[in-house]
Each structure stands twice: as C-alpha cells, then as structure tokens.
Amino acid sequence: GAGVSQSPSNKVTEKGKDVELRCDPISGHTALYWYRQSLGQGLEFLIYFQGNSAPDKSGLPSDRFSAERTGGSVSTLTIQRTQQEDSAVYLCASSLGVVGTSGGDQETQYFGPGTRLLVL
Amino acid sequence: AQSVTQLGSHVSVSEGALVLLRCNYSSSVPPYLFWYVQYPNQGLQLLLKYTSAATLVKGINGFEAEFKKSETSFHLTKPSAHMSDAAEYFCAVSHTGFQKLVFGTGTRLLVSP
C-alpha cells in the first residue's frame, strides 16, 4: 500500500515569504507528526495530531509556524515570513494511533521522504 | 524528560565485520525504544522497536538490539556488515506509543570493502 507522501519534495523560497508543506498520511492512520531535521539541531519534534486535534504542539519554534489537519487525513505545515534558519528537511510521520488495534503496530511511526526547504 | 545519547557520530567497519551502534536513554517511565535508518535523501525507515515485550529485538536486514534496563541501553548490532548498510542510524525514545519521538543525534555508519 501507499506510504506517507509529502509535497513538494524541494522548496526554495526567499526570506520573508510564506510556505506551505503538505503531508498525506497512510490511510487509516489517526496520528500524524511533524519533525524537522537540520544540521545544527538534528531531528526535532514539531507537532502531533490525533485526528484533527493537536494535543502536543510544544515543538513549534515560534508563532510563525502553524499546522492544521483536516478530515483526519491531510496535514499542512505553514511557515510565515520565512527566515534562513528555517532551512531544513521537514519530515512527516503517521501511526495507527488507536489503542487496542490488533497487530501491535499502533505505536510505529512511518515517515515520509521529507520536504527539503531552502530559504535564501 | 526523556533523552537519547548515541555515542560516536561516525562508526567505520569493514565489510563482514561486526556492527555495534550504541544508544543510551534516559526516561522516568518505561520507554518505547526505536532504531531508524536513513539513507541519503530519504526519510526514516524503522529497523526495529522495543515496546516492553522481549528484551532482545530482531529487526530487518539482520539487525537486532537488546534492551538492558540496568544499563539504560539499547545498542544496535549486526554480526556481519554489508556495503548496503552504509547509512545514518537514529535511536529514539517515546513515553508511550502515541507521543513524540525524541531522537539521538545519529550515527553515520561507514562500511569499507
């Protein structure tokens, strides 16, 4: 079956512009996560969705970052007024996220290929 | 707070040699532990996971890891390295199954012929 997909795969933007990054999770996965991978900071958690709600958004670095999820499926991460330090690979992951599902795989997070963002 | 320490940003082995990548964790509650592999310009792929069942966990591509509570370790091993194992490996911990992963800084495995 299809895995997690992300678009665009690469994005080059100018400082001060807004960008939107999209994540399509695995069908049926109720939990969705955004992470950021950068040279200086490694892999950092940004936000976690359960359904359309975000019970943990503690990793968003500033109020320029926001995310939403609609229909319990697609999620969009928006960065407003981009800065050069926002340059990184943004990774999305999804998991079953439902307690009691069979198979014992509900805790595994499956990652997409990432969006490589470069802010000039 | 949870944290993960991966000793060695780079590990070099010869093809056919033992691979040992070290991971120590800190967690105030029983952890879920994961090893992921990342090939160049790709996302993360799960190698194996520990979720409080068997302490010796076998994963894909011949890798395994042993959870040692007394040492707070979850080291990754493979008896015989292959050239295709060259990649970056990340150890991660989570509090429960549905919360964020906290990653180590990663270890780049280099395999020479």
Description of the structure:
The complex is a heterodimer of chains A (120) and B (113). In chain A, 0% of the residues lie in helices and 49% in strands. Chain A contains no helices and 11 strands. In chain A, strands 2, 4, 5, 6, 9, 10 and 11 form a 7-stranded mixed β-sheet that branches. With 113 residues, chain B is mainly β. In chain B, the strands form 3 sheets. In chain B, strands 2, 5, 6, 10, 11 and 12 form a 6-stranded mixed β-sheet that branches. In chain B, strands 3-9-8-7 form a 4-stranded antiparallel β-sheet, with no helix packed on it. The radius of gyration of chain B is 13 Å and the shape is globular. Chains A and B meet through β4, β5, β9 and β10 of A and β5, β6, β10 and β11 of B.
The computed structural class of chain A is mainly beta
Summing up helix and strand content along with how strands pair, one would put the structural category of chain B as: mainly beta
**Which range does the strand content of chain A fall in?**
over 45%
Helix content of chain A: under 10%
Average pLDDT taken over every residue of chain A? 91
Rg measurement of chain A, Å: 14 Å
